[in-house]
Amino acid sequence: MSGKSVSDNRPLSPHLQIYKPIFTMVMSIIHRLTGVALYFGTLLLAWWLMAAATGATYFDFVNGFFASWLGRLVLFGYTWALLHHMFGGFRHFIWDTGRGFSEKSRMALSRWSLAGSIVLTILLWVIAYWAKGSM
Length: 135
Hints:
Blueprint: H1 23-54, H2 56-67, H3 69-96, H4 103-132
Helix pairs in contact: 1-2, 1-3, 2-3, 3-4
């Protein structure tokens, strides 16, 4: 024997090549990605507010972008990211209280977080279109 143990071949810090992706891990990654998306979405909100302060012509241009299919897709994604990140925050808040750490609870919280964000996003957009009279 060369004096090396089996553990000498293991990585010092486990990473994605070691762990099999599980739902709660993917939800954690998505929570972080939605946080990044919210940063860029907030820049778009700032752009819209600056356009409103600049004048009617530029404001109409920015509103035209947000009214386009691409703009609406971006706004839809921003809405989902906002709601998904919010539900993820609730999940983390529950964990901060020392609850919800069992496997069943973690899975339920993750599923409810995903389902809640999707359902509420669609509901908000349906209500917005209905209120505007676009349906």
